[in-house]
Amino acid sequence: MAWKQTGQLSLADSLINAHKAIEELDELHNLINWQTIEHTLRHVHSSDRGESAFHPVIMFKILLLQKLYNLSDPAMEKQLARDLLFRRFVGLSLTDNVPDHSTIWRYHKHLGELGLIEPLFNQINEQLAEQNIIIKAGSVSIIDASIVEAKNKRAKKGKHTNNTQDRQAAYVSKKDSTGTLKTTYGYKIHLNCDEDSFVKKIQTTPANVHDSQCFTTLLTGDESAVYADSAYKSQAHDDYLAEHEPPINNHIHDRAWRNTPLTKEQKHTNTQKSQTRNTVERVFGHFKLHYGMNKARHLGLMQFHTSTLLASIVHNLKTALGLKR
Question: Would 1 be classed as within a structural domain?
Answer without folding.
Answer: no
